[in-house]
C-alpha cells in the first residue's frame, strides 16, 4: 500500500493506536456514526448541512473530528460536525470515497467553535508517515478558505455525486 494520504479510510476497529490518538484530542470515546445525506447536502460543507437540517427538522450539532486511518502507519482527525437528533448522531455529509459510516470523535472543548479548531490533526507512526504528515500540513497552509455562500454554491451536492460527478474537497492556492 502506497503511503500518500489518498488511501485513508474509516478505522475498521478502535485499536490501541486509534484509541491513543483519540485520547490526545478529547476526553470522550469515539463512536461509529452512520452517513445519511440528503440529496441537497454538499461535499465538505458539514456545518452548513447540519445547520440546514436543524432548521428543517430540529436537533443539535455536535462538533468534533472524523477519524481517517491507514492501519498501523498513519492517522488523521478532520474537523467535522454531525447532527444529534433524538439522542442519535447522524452524519449528513457524504464522503467522496462513498464510505457509509465514519468514526466520529466528539470534542469536549465547548469553548471553541467549529472554525476555531484545527482543520486537520495528523500523526505518523513510521518515519515515512511522519514525513507524509509534515508534507500534508505544509500543503494545508495554502488551502483557500471560501465563504459559506461560495462553498455552498461551488461544492457538489450528494445528488450530483450520485450521478457520477467528482471534485476535490479542497483547493490550494496553486490550483486557482
Commentary on this structure:
- The chain is an alpha+beta fold and about 180 residues long.
- It has helices at about 15-25, 45-55, 125-140, 150-155, 160; strands at about 30-35, 60-70, 75-85, 90, 100-105, 120-125.
- It has a five-stranded mixed β-barrel.
- β3 (about 75-85) and β4 form a beta hairpin.
- It starts with 15 loop residues before the first helix and ends in a 14-residue tail after the last helix.
- The mean pLDDT is about 90.
Write a brief structural summary:
It is built from five helices and six strands, in the order αβαβββββααα. The protein has helices at residues 16-23, 46-57, 127-140, 148-154, 158-162, and strands at residues 31-35, 60-70, 74-85, 88-91, 101-106, 120-124.
The major beta sheet can be summarized as: 5 strands, mixed, barrel
SSE string: HEHEEEEEHHH
Give the CA-CA distance, first to last residue: 31 Å
Helix content: 25-40%
Strand order of the largest sheet: 1-4-3-2-5
Radius of gyration: 16 Å
Strand content: 15-25%
Using DSSP, what is the number of strands? Answer: 6
Structural class: alpha+beta
Anisotropy-based shape: globular
Number of helical segments with 4 or more residues? 5
What characteristics describe this protein?
176 residues; five-stranded mixed barrel; 6 strands
Secondary-structure blueprint:
Elements (H helix, E strand, L loop, with lengths): L15 H8 L7 E5 L10 H12 L2 E11 L3 E12 L2 E4 L9 E6 L13 E5 L2 H14 L7 H7 L3 H5 L14
Parallel strand pairs: 1-4
Antiparallel strand pairs: 1-5, 2-3, 2-5, 3-4, 3-6
